[in-house]
């Protein structure tokens, strides 16, 4: 049984052929002719001492030995590619790729990132607005900002700030609806982005938290939180604003939260990166900056009575 590894080029040819089940398509992927790829695989088979493919009339299929070899070869090349990419990043402190949800990127990141750029002109920031599950290796991502219930043992994870939701509106609209009871007559906007949260943090839950049984009907719904905020800023109505989406507008007085009651879902925004990478200068600088930016508006939260959503009754007693 051979113990010495065969040439890497031959293993690469086998990996491509095993994935495509076609020598022609594999040859195109690795940049050689089909004849050259066939020769590399034949060399590999001679090294192993048994065939890896059955050559059929118009196709190929793996032998038992090929089926055993294929998963390990594929994983080996994935690991090699990841290690090569990570090694290249070690000395690269000039580029930082950050992923966050589209609404968070638009509403929180975009208005602030110039402050980071001004403090760190040597770092080139790249944003990837996405909610897809983060794969740092596959997507070449350095940092992810994600809304999660708790830490992930597989990554370095730092809580940034817990979310809360509270009714927000233009100051002049607050004069029209001075009490929670009067809010039942207001044009309410619905942000559906937190629909996945359990217990719910929707309008019905907020009204129950202040002792009112009211479920808005005929309200306007938005799938993106930033769109709901844009509509609120345009005077279209009152939205149950998420902290991350409205904190800047509340801090600057463009929106107000007149009732002082907020609900807190069981989630935190977290700063996430692969373990060990948190000490990279660019990542550490970005983490420290984002924490300092959050602290600038912390006084807004101090003006609210924040009720965990778990403490909101599911139903109010009948009167």
UniProtKB/TrEMBL annotation:
Keywords: DNA-binding, Transcription, Transcription regulation
Single biological process term from Gene Ontology: DNA-templated transcription
MF GO annotations: DNA-binding transcription factor activity; sequence-specific DNA binding
SUPFAM superfamilies: Periplasmic binding protein-like II, Winged helix' DNA-binding domain
Pfam families, per the entry: HTH_1 (PF00126), LysR_substrate (PF03466)
Record keyword Manganese present: no
InterPro entries per UniProt: LysR-type_TF_proteobact-type, LysR_HTH_N, LysR_subst-bd, WH-like_DNA-bd_sf, WH_DNA-bd_sf
Start and end residues of each HTH lysR-type domain: 6-63
CDD domains: PBP2_GcdR_TrpI_HvrB_AmpR_like
Record-stated family: Belongs to the LysR transcriptional regulatory family.
PANTHER family assigned: GLYCINE CLEAVAGE SYSTEM TRANSCRIPTIONAL ACTIVATOR, HTH-TYPE TRANSCRIPTIONAL REGULATOR
Protein name per its UniProtKB record: Transcriptional regulator
Taxonomic lineage of the native organism: Bacteria, Pseudomonadati, Pseudomonadota, Alphaproteobacteria, Rhodobacterales
